[in-house]
Amino acid sequence: MRVLITGNQGYLGTVMTEVLTAEGHSVTGLDSGYFADCVMGAAPTDPVTINKDLRDVTPDDLAGIDAVIHLAALSNDPLGYLEPGITHDINHHASVRLARAAKEAGVSRYLYASTCSVYGAAGDGLVTEDAELNPLTPYAESKVRVEADVAELADSSFSPVFLRNATAFGFSPRLRADIVLNNLVGHAVYTGDVRVLSDGTPWRPLVHARDIALAFSLSLSAPTEAIHCAAFNVGSELNNVTVAEIAEAVVDAVPGSKLLITGENGADPRSYRVDFSAIRKALGYEAQWSIADGAVELTREYQAAGITGDEFFSRFTRLTHLEKLQAAGVLDDSMRRLPVGS
Fold it and tell me: Where on the phi/psi map is residue 32: left (φ > 0), alpha (ψ -120 to 50), or beta?
């Protein structure tokens, strides 16, 4: 299948490209290049990539494509709070324009990377795809709006699929250090402390980057009637854990590290446990990676990287990296690339 992946030079996109290429798909990328150089270890092999801002995509960019996997987004809650207007411009409006362009270009399948954080504060019960959506951040709110707007485009020739990923973890050559497990392992390796700033009680569903890629792969090959305009939670009930339990897995993986639950930021209102039975039933999906497996993997990769803690947190933290690009005159205030030499 001819697949276009937006955000192919990002954390999930780099893994997704590797997985789908190995399965025999013909992959084209589309990426603005914000994080192309944020590489840990050996540089990945990118497919042919359209270097373009998501906000400028046209149907011509999608000619000959069978399916679009839309991953590109400003995907950091602190950034969303700092620049909510830009977050909605890129994450919401540009995502809907991309879907319209895909439909106009004759693309038949549109796989959208949504998030389980659309459920917000859902309590202790397992939430299904039919649960009330209660987004608590601009990032999550933008995802809710895209799902609603793109669903209206669905018809017999255009099938959107909304994959609500649990919080990602695990190694990618283009790492993110600002998601919970990746971050806690980084602190353990580089400082010796596993520091939890909340009280540790909120529930989080987690899923490995490769298990996310598996869900998208199955969605590409599934019969249309199994996925047409459907939403699927992506993850495993075994990885519904509290933040404190995540931290304890990190302590187990990093010898000599110690757990510090400070509670200095108070209770986190985002707390939810998720039911993943729908994707198992519809697609035969089974997540393969446990949190403990991921903590061990990340520890191994971080220790092999040979970089300092300062390098780790500055290079692989999204907000910090984007602020550096703005300060260097690479990006303007709207997160658009400036002409070289401007």
Answer: alpha
Ranking 64-68, 76-80, 269-273, 279-283 by mean pLDDT, the lowest is 76-80
Are 205 and 272 spatial neighbours (Cβ–Cβ below 8 Å)? yes
Closest among 87, 63, 61 to 75, alpha carbons compared: 87
Count of other CB atoms within 10 angstroms of residue 333: 8
240-267 burial, b at 16+ Cβ within 10 Å, e below that, comes to bbbbeebbbbbbebbeebebebeeeeee
What DSSP assignment string belongs to 180-234? HHHHHHHHHHHHSEEEE-S-S--EEEEEEHHHHHHHHHHHHHS-HHHHTTEEEEE
Query: What pLDDT, on the 0 to 100 scale, is given for residue 254?
Result: 97
Tokens read off for 220: 């590409």
Q: Other C-beta atoms within 10 Å of 48: how many?
A: 9
Q: Is residue 219 within 8 Å of 163, Cβ to Cβ?
A: yes
Residue range 143-168, pLDDT digits in tens: 999 999 999 999 999 999 999 999 99
DSSP 336: P
Give me the residue label for tokens 């550096």: 324
The model's confidence at residue 243, banded by pLDDT at 50, 70 and 90, is very high
Residue 181: which of 239, 120, 250 has the closest Cα?
250
Structure tokens at 261: 């639950």
What's the rounded Cα separation, in Å, for the pair 271 and 147? 21
Cα–Cα separations (whole angstroms), residue 305 to 16, 40, 242: 22, 7, 29
Percent of the chain with pLDDT strictly greater than 90: 82
Q: Is the pLDDT of residue 93 over 60?
A: yes
Q: Identify the CA nearest to 170 among candidates 187, 185, 154.
A: 185
The one-character DSSP state at 237 is G
Q: Looking at the predicted structure, is the pLDDT value of residue 342 above 60?
A: no
